[in-house]
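Why do we care about 3D structure at all? Because function follows from shape, and shape follows, mostly, from sequence. That is the central idea of this module. The next example makes it concrete: a single protein chain, its amino acid sequence, and then its structure expressed as tokens.
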Amino acid sequence: MDAPTPDLTEQLRAENQRLRARIAVLETCAVSNTPAIATAPAAPPLWFDSVSDAIFVADATWTIQHWNQAAAQLYGWASAEVVGRPISELIAVARYLDDDSDEGATQTLRTTGSWRGIFVQRTRDGREVVVEGATRALTDAQGTITGYIGINRDVTARKQAEQALCASEANLRAILASTTQAYLLLDAELRLVQWNELAEAMAAERFGRAHQAGAPISDYMPPETVPTCTALMRRALAGEHIQTELDVSTPAVPRWLVVTYAPVREPDGQIRGICVSTLDVSAHRQAELELRASETRYRILFETMAQGVVYHDSDGQIIAANPAAEHILGLTLSQMQGRTSLDPRWRAIHEDGTPFPGEAHPAMVALRTGQEVRDVVMGIYHPGLDVYRWISIQAVPHVRLGAAGSTQVYALFDDITARRQAEQARDAVHHQLDAIVEALDEGVIALRHDGSVALINQSARELMLTDPTARPRTVRELSAMNRMTLYDTTGQPLAADDLPFLRVLRGERFKSWELKLRPAGSDEERWVLISGMTVAGAEGEHALGIVTRSDITEHKRAELALAAHAEALSKTNAALTRALTLKDEFLAMMSHELRTPLNTVLGVTEALEEELYGPIVDRQRQALGRVTQSARHLLTILSDILDLTHIEAGKAVLDVRAVDVDILCRTALQFVQAPAQTKGIQLFRTVAGEVEGLRGDERRLTQILTNLLENAVKFTPAGGRVGLEVSGDASEEHIAFTVWDTGIGIAPEDMGRLFQPFTQIDGRLSRAYEGIGLGLTLVRRLAEMHGGSVSLESTVGQGSRFTVRLPWSPGENIAPATPRGPAPTTSTWVTPPRLVIADDHEITLQFYAELLGEQGCQVALARTGVETVTQVRATRPDVAIIDVQMPELDGLSAIRQIRADPDVEATPIIALTALAMPGDRERCLAAGASVYLAKPVGIRTLLATIAEALACANTGRTGE
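And the structure:
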């Protein structure tokens, strides 16, 4: 693309062409005369000194032979000075301008015989000249080079003119290429003549094609702009200079142009065309739009930001404020305008409560100094809330260009009231914590990671330092002031690297490390528990190491004393355990020794009463009844003692199952039927309709009701009344058994002793009522085992009401499906069974043998455990009845041996025991017994159990 050039450029080009033509003519002349010189080297031709080009002739060694006058003028060397000298000493080439070299020129001469080029040489006075030269090799007839002739012309002026021309053109091109305006040169017909690169780029972007010289400018204009722009260009051709703004935006690219139309005149003033310059002001216009949008955004930000902003003029007066400032300061803008920081109504204060002078306000300081002031805390009175609000202020001066000082100050401030209150609360907590740590009996040392002491409380100073008032600053000082030597539990001094504060500095953690301390110069030993931990900083780095020390000397001494006491206590406990064992053994022995004869007494009397030995008269029956009553009284006392002992020892276990409430009540009443009839006492039973059953231990529940009924009959005079009432409360989820009487009643002062063991209200030797005082105690204990309670209401002379409340819900109101009847007193089997009876009590053994023999049974007897196993293996009985306590081999071991023998392992076994101790039933069943019975065992019960065992054996089941 060509650019427009001034007239000087045309002149330089013309001169350059004339010079080149002249050089060509001279070269032709010189070359045509060269043979003459070659043939007459001693005398150059007449024209040799008349030509204007420098000519030299040299021999084959480049030694100068001839040197014309033009050469002398060009290089400053006269002919007489140069002839006979090497040419390299005089006019050597300084540099080549056409990328040639001495070697290249020489090679060209040898191969072609001639060389031409442009190069720079230095004259005699050191001046550089640009030379355009041609050199030809002279040869003889054989073609051997005999010399050289060179013609050099000074083209320095020409080169400078060419360089100036090139520079001018380059500058013009650079100006047109770097300008932000697009230029078009149009002729008088408004056709394209010349244009710059930016104009070309705009045409390619908008129309997708390049400019073509001679094309109408209208081809490169948006159609909608052609009429208007053509009219403006016509006005420019008429001599006007016109500038206008043109919107040439597209949906994709917004664009605005400022277009200038200027006439182009000839030297004579005639207008030969116009120059159209186009400046793209899209960025400027876009910036204006963005500036307006930015101003809008900043106005919104100013009005909505939470930070307060107040503008002060050069006099410090408030001229503007945002809504946040109005809220924080409690003033409207109109109330603030015109105020300065000197106004006393601000009532500003420092953090310590002293007045804050107005001239020290950050805005005033920024106005005076022209420097920004940051992070100044100030308290400002809020008139609406009648409180002080705390703000943190930043004052920024605004200086206009060329102004001597600040013209405005922007004061920005944050409401830090809540933060300050939080900081004050935090500081208060820190002070409290410091006071707490200082007051601790436990020594506390905090070390920073660099070994400096962050904290050491009074307890630690008193325990460790020779001077408790000292404040060591580093671990080194702490070690120097330490008055204690540390020992481990074996008595060995700690190694230097094991010292607690060095361990925490290494990041170690330890807890309750027990060490001994010994003060310097003293034999006294103290014991301490030392713990260490590290505290990480916000980035997870080791920030603090904390060591705590607790003096446990007194605790250690007490521990040693306690150990001695514990040893003594252990011996005492061993003795108590032995005593308890002996007690259990005694109770077991007493149970066995009493239940065994009672078993015979009750069995014989029951057999007599049932007339199994023959008919008896009424008088005999009455006597047997008294014997049975006395025996059962003894059994009750024994059972009460054992039951209470088991319960108090926590060995009693309930056999919980469904219980028929009506049968439970009738059974309990049957136990007191005889004594009640004897005294003429009426018995009453009332069971609420909604109550049928409950879950509990039927034997224990019977024991509760029987004990209460026996007491009621005992303490009710002849002709009185005793009753049993049962009710259920679904909402409270309990069932109540109430035993009432019309007896002697109980005084309030005696009620507290009723439930104490072995206690009766009337404890005199002459007391009117028998008993050992365990009945009510058992009632309470058994009720509590069921999760219930016992209460009493009584009036002296009118009677008492004992109520037992037990957990109950309608969902548990289920009674057993089949009521149980009394056991038969005679056998029901068709074929008399074979029995083995084992017992070490001869009377009992003979009684059972005689009784069961009368029932048609085939009976084999055994008196030891070994004998029992032998008899079972020999007779293979249908049922074996084995007492648990026997000599040589106890009953449980005998049962295990029987179960281990395949020939007799299926034999039904009834285990009998007179111990009646906790766990007896479980131990018997675990050993292999089919059924467990506690002595004394009645005739009906024994016969029924044998029948049940036989039935279970026949069906392959094991009964209980």
